[in-house]
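Long-time lurker. I teach an intro course on protein structure, and each term I like to show students one example going from raw sequence to a predicted 3D structure in token notation. This year I'd like something fresh instead of my usual example. Would anyone be willing to generate the tokens for the chain below so I can use it in lecture? Attribution to the forum is fine with me.
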Amino acid sequence: MEYKLLFVDDNQKILNEYAQLLTPFSNKWQGYFARNAKEALDILKTNEIDVCLADHIMPELSGIELLSKIKKNYPKVLRILLASDKDEKLSIRNFNLAHQFLLKPDNFESIRIKLELPLILKNLITNERTLIKLNGEDGIPSLPEIYYKIEKEIFSPEASIHRVVNLIAKDIALTTKIFQLVNSAFVGIAAKITDLHQAINILGLNVVKSVILYEKVFSHLDKKEGLKEIIETIWNHSLVVSTLSHKLTYHFTQKRELAEEAYIAGILHDIGKIILMNIEQNHSKVLEFFNSSASINDDEVKKYYGASHSELGAYALSLWGFSKEIVEAILLHHGTPTINYFNVTSAVQISNKLANIEGIDDSIYNIIYTKDGLIELLNGHEEKVEKA
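-- Reply from a regular --
Happy to contribute to a lecture. Here you go:
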């Protein structure tokens, strides 16, 4: 499949550089080039563009103003804002109009890595109405500003955990969610944690970023009638899955980074359910797909929306720039796990099944730390495991 990219920059030299970068990949990536927003909109009228990559600062209509028009009139197009080091701060203030921010690249590989996965997953969504909703005004929200600020701080040459703590401490709802997570029974800390700095150190910054995503992007939904209880049930289930994923992965692989990715994937594995609530304005319709335990009838969801909640979640995370390993785990979290080989996907698949076993508690760790015990537990409770 060929993907069509529209580059917009008022500097012709930069457009020429993009064209050169694209040349070796011309069998799969076709480039269109515009020197201003007017030229870009003319191209969009006559071509099925997949991605628009717009320079932030341009005369007449800026990149932000162009992306605003694209969001409204061409919602299926993925929107990327290109910024230099100098105007990165300004870009962050306009986070709600771009799916991703990229610093102007010096090679096409950096663009390809960011775009290929969401474009592949986009093809799994067979209902055009759903795709338009996902990418349009009321679809998948952009990452919250605090997420970008923390990301910027993490990668700063003078990174400071104290500045990260101060950023988070200003948000009461987010702070509450972090304490809820670090003090949950499945994290297994003996004493109650009441210091935010300590809580963030225990969880790790990448885990905290996933909590920010969960809390901030969809916090408005719990005010909708009938949805708050379901969202809380999904969150509590996700706490169990994330902790089991982390413990299993570290126990069987002894790889801390892999275990952390499994933790993040566990927290976010059901984010597609929340996205479904976000794109459907008729909330009574949403409730038709859920049962009392917040399990979802994915056959009916796919029939109505053209995508399962797993596909919706994977697409969103790919747009937000999450790693291929985490996106794959979200996409396949209801698949059949491979016990003999542990990666992020298999850990989340196993943990999702375990989390649906009635009466699960801390004693489960004595069983699951042997592969034979894990297999016996899964097989013995298969009839109790959520299937959708």
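Some talking points for your students: The first helix runs from residue 12 to 22. The radius of gyration is 22 Å.
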